Amino acid sequence: SNPCGGAVWKEITEQEFGEIENVLDLQQAQKLMQMLEEYSPFNTIVKLLMFTGMRSGECLGLRWDSIDFERKTIFIDKTLSYANNIWFLTSPKTPRSTRTISIDDNAVELLLKHKEEQDKQKAIVGDAWQHPELVFTSCTGHWYDRSLLNTQFRRYIDRHKEDLNLNHKLTIHGLRHTNAALLLYAGEDIENISAHLGHASSDITSRVYAHMYAEVKVRMAKTVSSALLSIK
User: Fold this and answer.
1) Which of 190, 217, 218 has the alpha carbon at shortest distance from 206?
2) What is the rounded distance in angstroms from the CA atom of residue 185 to the CA atom of residue 183?
3) pLDDT digits over 88-124, tens only?
4) 219: how many CB neighbours lie within 10 A of its CB?
5) 194 contact partners, CB below 8 Å, separation of at least 6
6) Which residues contact 191 (CB under 8 A, 6 or more apart)?
7) Which sequence spans correspond to the domains of the chain?
8) Which residues of 13-33 are buried (b: 16+ CB within 10 A; e: fewer)?
């Protein structure tokens, strides 16, 4: 039976377009990565979100068989949703949200380390481990509660605002914005970023990141101009 019933379920959707200040700059992102060096499932999730730009629900809905360690890809086709006091996996909201993303050696190493630690925990819990197929679970193998992740992240950021030189709000969704911003500033094409994020269209990506995209275009124009005028 469908655990949704007729309920309006809390699925992961795009945030309001006006939330774009919810982002880290490069120095802040680098600092956060350094601070998360020690292993924990929480640290692994935060780092993976920064590496990939996934939605948190997509990350918590990841299954081990969706990760191809040889090809270095993650197939995203599920998101963790909640209704009537039940967590369950459902298909992403839009067709373009179902996608394959590439990961690099750093993300592969991160996930393999997590698998090794999770296997140790599984051995302790034994048959009571509920979801062996899931990449991220509670310490007893149940769903990793998305509300708990949001709370953990908020508290972590509140504790480390000074370390990060952060004077604005940052939610877990801000890590997705951070990934997109870093790609934009690295000169990546908006269409590629849109496909990578699983936006319904590149128009959405352009609108969400409009002011960043404008800055990048100005910088590109200056780069071309400088190159042309420096020719002797």
Assistant:
1) 190
2) 6
3) 999 987 888 899 999 999 999 999 999 999 999 999 9
4) 12
5) 96, 201, 202, 204, 205
6) 202
7) 22-222
8) ebbeeeebebbbeeebbebbe
Of the candidates 53, 64, 87, the residue with the CA atom closest to the CA atom of residue 179: 53
Amino acid 214: pLDDT: 61
Q: Is the pLDDT of residue 73 over 90?
A: yes
Fold of 22-222: hpI Integrase; Chain A (1.10.443)
Strand-pairing partners, residue 74, are 67, 101
